[in-house]
Amino acid sequence: MRNLWTTPTLCLLLLVAFSPSLTGANKSATASFFSVEDLTPPLSNIRTIIQGDYDDEVMGYLRGYLLNSYDTQKILGTAEFYFPLFEHYLKLYKLPPELKFIPVIESRLRPYASSTVGAAGLWQFTSTTAKYQGLQINSKIDERKDAYKSTRAAAKYFAYLYERFGAWDLVMAAYNCGERRLSKAIEAACSKDFEEVRKYLPLETQRYIPKFLAAQYICTYNLEHQLYPVYSDAELRNTKTIRVFDAYNFNEIAEETGVSLFTLKTLNPAYNGCHLPASKKGNFIVLPHRAYQTFLESHPREPGLSAMVQVSKKSYSMTTWTVQSGSTLEKLATLCGCSKADIIRWNNLKTGELFYLQELIIYYPTPTVSSGFRA
C-alpha cells in the first residue's frame, strides 16, 4: 500500500515557518491548518464508522492535504466521478458509504496506479487478493484497473471482512496488512479491541485509520478550506460506459469514432495493448461522451423489444433510463411498473447486475387522453 504524503511533519512545519507566502497576514490564515483546537469545522463533525481519538495523528495528514493543495484539488475533481460509482456498489452490498474514501489514500483515485509491492488499481489489490475476489489478471487484461469490476470486488471483500472481524477498524487493518497478519495481532493482543491490537500491527497499518479520517475530512470540508475541484480534460471527464461481450480493437474504435488512441488507452487502463478480449461476463469500454453514439451506430445492439410490446394492441412509448447509485433491476422494475424480465428483454441483458450510469431502454403504455365532457 502506498503512502499519500511522505514528507515528514517537521519539514512541513519548517516550510510554513520560513515560506514567504505564509508570513504576515497569510500566516494567520494558515494557523488553523496546524492546530486541532482551531480547526474549523472540528474533526468531531465528521460522521465516521471509526471509534477512538486519532485527532493529533489525523492533523499530520491534513497538513499534507492542505499544503499540497493543488494535488488535493485534483483528487477532489476526480472524486466527483468516482464517488457515485463507489456508492453504487457499496449500497448493493449494504456497506457504509464512508468506505468510498479508501481509494483516496490507496491510489489518489488513479485507476492506473501501481505500487512497488505489486498492488494496482483504484483499490490497490495485490494479485493474490484480486484473483481470490474473481478479478482477471493476464497478458490481455488487468481487472484491478477497471473501475467498475475492481469496485465491485472491493465491496464484496469488505462485506466478507466485516462478517469475519465485526468492526470497521479491524476490517481496514485486514484490508491493509492482510487477514492472516491481523489474526496474529489479535491473538498476540488477546483482544479484538483495536486499541489493544494496534501495537502488534505494522507501522503502515497503524497509520491507516488516521489517513482514512484525514481523507474523509478533507473531501467533506474542502470548501471550508478554500479547496476547489480541479478537473481533467473535458474529453476524459465527460464519458459514457458500455458493457460489451465481443472482442474489440482500440485501433478500430479510434478510427470509427475519431477518438485518439491515447485517450482510449487513458480511459481504459485495464487492457494491455490495443486488444479487448471477448468475455461471457462482459467487459467495459469507457468512451468520451461525443463518441458514444458513433460507437453504437458502428456496433448496433440487437433489437430488444419484447414480444409483449410488439403484439400488444396498446400503444407504447420508449424512454431511456440512466442507472444511479444503488439501482437494481428489482427497484427499477417497481418504479417503472414492469417486470425484471421485461427490462432484461428490452435491453438484451446477459447479466442481471446493473452498473453505474448504464443506459437502459424502458417501454411504458402511452397514456390516453379522455374527454372532459360527460353526456
What does this structure look like?
This protein is mainly alpha-helical and about 375 residues long. About 45% of the residues lie in helices and about 10% in strands. Helix 8 (about 170-175) crosses helix 9. The protein has three domains: about 10-225, Lysozyme (Orthogonal Bundle), CATH 1.10.530.10; about 235-285, no CATH class; about 305-365, Roll (Membrane-bound Lytic Murein Transglycosylase D, Chain A), CATH 3.10.350. The protein is globular.
- Approximately what portion of the residues adopt beta-strand conformation? 5-15%
H/I helix tally: 19
**Secondary structure category:** mainly alpha
CATH class of the largest domain: Mainly Alpha
CATH architecture of the largest domain, by name, is Orthogonal Bundle
Q: Find the count of extended strands (DSSP E, 2+ residues).
A: 6
Poorly predicted sequence stretches spanning 5 or more consecutive residues: 2-32, 303-313, 370-375
| Large-scale geometry | globular
Question: In percent, how helical is the residue content?
Answer: 40-55%
Instruction: Summarize the helix and strand pattern as letters.
Output: HHHHHHHHHHHHHEEHHEEHHEHHE
Largest sheet: 2 strands, antiparallel
Q: Could you report the average pLDDT, rounded to the nearest whole number?
A: 85
